[in-house]
Specification:
The protein is an alpha+beta fold and 146 residues long. The protein folds into 2 domains: 89 residues, 2-Layer Sandwich (Alpha-Beta Plaits); 41 residues, Alpha-Beta Plaits, CATH 3.30.70.20. Strands 1-8 form a two-stranded antiparallel sheet. Strands 2-3 form a two-stranded antiparallel sheet. The two termini are 13 Å apart.
Amino acid sequence: MKRVYVIEEWCLGCHLCEYNCAFANSGMKDMAYALKGKKIFPRIHVEGEDKITFAVSCRHCEDPMCVKSCIAGAISKADGVVKINRDKCVGCLTCMLVCPYGALAPAEDGIMQKCELCLENTSGSPACVKGCPNKAIVYEERSADQ
């Protein structure tokens, strides 16, 4: 299955992946109108300082702890993609606590969100991949030993 991978040494720490993610998931057609002057809630997050930065997003684990720990049954895995049912999520943050990668975060309304590979809102590659100026984020299939 294709997944989002980050080439850490290429990451500039520019946060453009976050803006592209927030825009792609906003449901709006104009990026400036969707994001200007607003706090963004991306599903990918740039971490690190100074010379070492990297983007963190859901790894769509083989055996995801977030799915097992969700008290509301809002998180499921289908066709290799871990998804959150926003109608079921109660915002208890348990999934955020158990994720070993720090890939989950609350949205503006307190409901949890995470990368779902832009399968519902773009065609082709996820928005973070398309918007990375240094090609530090890729969407590809890799073997288990990579």
